[in-house]
Amino acid sequence: MNRETPVTADDDGAPKPAAVSTGERHWRDTPNPIDDSDSPSFEAVKRDLAKVPPVRLVITILLLLLSLGIARYSWGLPVSRGFDEETNRRVLHFPARADETPIRLPIALDAERALYDARAYRATLMRRVEEDPRILVISFDQETLRMTAKRSPLDRTMLAQALTNIDKLGARAIGIDILIDQPQREDPELFAALRTMRTPVYFAYATSSANAADVESWQQEFMDRWFAQLAGTNIHKASIRGEADSDNVMRRWPQHVPGLPTFMPIALTGRTEFTGYEGSVLYRSPANVERNVFAEFPIQLFADPATASAFADQVKDRIVLIGGNLPDVDRFDTPATRYTDKTISGLEVLATETAQILDGRMPGRVGGGMLWVLAILVVTAGMFTAMLDVRPWVALGAILFQLVFFGATPFMFELIGMDTYGLPAAGWLAGWALAFAATNAADRAVTSDQRRYAQSALGKYLPRDIAAQILKDPEKLSLTGEKRFLYTLFTDIEGFTSLSHVLPPERVATLLNAYLDGMSNIVLDHGGTIDKFVGDAVVAFWGAPIARPDDGDRAIAAAIAMTDFTANFSLKDSNDGAMLGRTRVGLHYGEAVVGNFGGEGRLSYTALGDAMNCAARLESANKHLKTVALVSQEARDRSTSDQFRPMGRIAVSGRATPIVVWEPAQHMDPEERAVLCRLWTEFDAGSLAALDEIKQICLTHSKDTALAYFATRLGEVGPGALSN
Question: Which residue ranges does the record assign to the Guanylate cyclase domain (predicted)?
Fold first, then answer.
């Protein structure tokens, strides 16, 4: 046998490779090539990206950029649509201008609004309050319209009477959410009442430039003349401009528009620090569901001095808001409308904003720079999660945790008092999902190639079905030693060492590679695992990493196929004198320790123990017994094959008990095999006549040296003995 690697023996006689110097650099300094458990890091990302095909890499990068854009701009793109008066055409502006409408992504915007409404409504339920003692709402309702027989404009006589009575009750300030934009015959009464007001009164005012849809230029001109007549009185203009979103939900304060007077809630409270505030409207819920946050009464109760005096405690030192509360005019949805189907009047929106000012609540929003940081964090998390190489349940846990975290974080921000309007909650989830999907697709493309390569590599040592199972469930390949009962097989070529000295080295290499390739195919085709090659020897086993019920039959069939293969191989490749000797095979069944063994940097999946040693001894015993293949009694008993003939007992180094061995004899007549087995059993029991019959069988097989030597040995050692 040609041992190209120096071999020594361990304590029990099993061969093992001797240590070989590898130079100054120690092998522990090199990375483990089979360790593919890199934790996700930027270096790992760079290595993985380097393996992605260029076209797929470009697509992946574009998708990641898209996911980043979604995670940052799901509320609206940084582009606005405006109108160029010089060209009389619509134009786009980047970055978006504050006085223009930004371009929205309809589906993303709807999702963001829905999530914001859920957060705001949840926060509203957490902000339950008793009836606000600082604000009183007095409204024109349906009953008022019936009594005055007037719908639009609202009756100014009743307004004048109510203002006079409220002024006497000591209100802190009065805000009137009614536009006086056209003349009425009851105007003299209203003027008379307003000129005598001691309480500051703030009337609604709007301009045609800021409210083109509701106010025409002639209406603005009328309001300007009307207020000019009240100069020097306690009557003031105040803006009532509101900015409902396109879905008619009043979520935020209006933008401050130059040219408009002070916003009415700011004017009523005198808190000028709220000027320019454009945050969210902070709605509240009543502590008592049967009452409202603000006390509200119809205006007709205050038009009559007798009934008005009964509300003295309700009016004194309060901010009074007067306006319409009608079912079909000036009504808005709130974040709670999705869940309660209730709308509120514009008058109540003003009351809510006034209370927010009195509470001093101006929650800040996350700035643009931080939104970029969060978007990058979200996309990066999706990328790294897609590259996690962990157990499926761990990966699923990581995915669920991140989805819950990124989904719940905006709710937590809202509950602790942050303004989350404009926070891309849906964008985070969508951006994370897109980044995960894009990276996962690229990673799968690389992994698929690696998997095919790994399956091909495993297929050189394991059967393809077992290799596929291990790739699907790596736990089936034990990474630590475990005891298994295996069918262990050793082979050797007779005279290969001498042959290797005769042939040129390149011819030896070609011949040996072709031989080992054929032997490997036999092992794999029969479901075995290739342990190693030692020169021209093949070491294989059945029963690990996955055991099968018919492993015994597979192993014996492989042993027979190996002997046949060598004979055919020699005939085919002997044209240049490269006639290989017979392949000797030893097969045993026993317990071994199987797993990955080696040092810190190199591992080998192999089997160790008595079963391996015994198979090696059986292979060596072929030379002494003139046989081609020897199978131990333990292996034969676990096979359904009957193609064996006895070869007696042999003593094996390292074992106290002799081994009964059998030789596969598939070419021998089955009846003769059966007779030979019977005769050997009889001889072993003490019948010397059985030996004569065995010798008679040998005469009919004059060229069968193994059988002849078997009969000779029996005659030499006698019944019940063993061969050395």
Answer: 487-619
Antiparallel, parallel or unpaired: β 331-332 and 319-324:
unpaired
Q: Within this chain, do residues 353 and 234 fall inside the same structural domain, yes or no?
A: yes
The secondary structure of residue 130, as a DSSP letter, is: P
Domains contained in the chain, number: 3
Angle at which helices 425-458 and 392-415 cross, to 10°: 170
Residue among 537, 418, 450 at smallest CA distance from 488: 537
Distance CA 542, CA 57 (A): 43
Same domain, 240 and 296: yes
Radius of gyration of the chain (CA): 47
Whether residue 372 sits in one domain with residue 321: no
| CB neighbourhood size of 42 (10 A) | 9
Domain finish residue from 431, 455, 479: 455
- The tokens describing 621, both together, are 């015993």
**CA 477 – CA 596 distance, rounded (Å):** 9
| DSSP symbols for 374-436 | HHHHHHHHHHHHHT--S-HHHHHHHHHHHHHHHHHHHHHHHHTT-B-TT--HHHHHHHHHHHH
> Tokens 């409308």 map to which residue?
337
Whole-angstrom Cα distance, residue 369 to residue 238? Answer: 35
- Domain residue limits at 152: 128-359
Distance CA 210, CA 227 (A): 18
Q: Single out the residue in 432, 455, 478 at which a domain terminates.
A: 455
Per-residue b or e along 239-273, where b marks 16 or more CB atoms closer than 10 Å to that residue's CB: bbbbebeeeebbbbbbeeeeebbbbbbbbbbebee
Pairing of strands 659-664, 319-324: unpaired
Residues 66 and 76: their CA atoms lie apart, in Å, by 14
256 and 141 part of one domain: yes
Please name the residues in contact with 474: beta carbons below 8 A apart, sequence gap of 6 or more: none
Give pLDDT, residue 431: 93
Contact 461, 530 (CB under 8 A): yes
**Residue 141: inside a domain, yes or no?**
yes
CA dist 476 → 284, 468, 470, 471, 598 (Å):
59, 11, 6, 9, 19
Q: Please state whether 506 falls in left (phi above 0), alpha (psi between -120 and 50) or beta.
A: alpha
Provide φ and ψ at 78, rounded to 5°.
-80, 35
For 92-149, the pLDDT digits (tens) are 776 777 666 778 777 888 999 999 999 999 988 887 899 999 999 999 999 999 988 8
Find out whether 112 and 76 touch, Cβ atoms under 8 Å: no
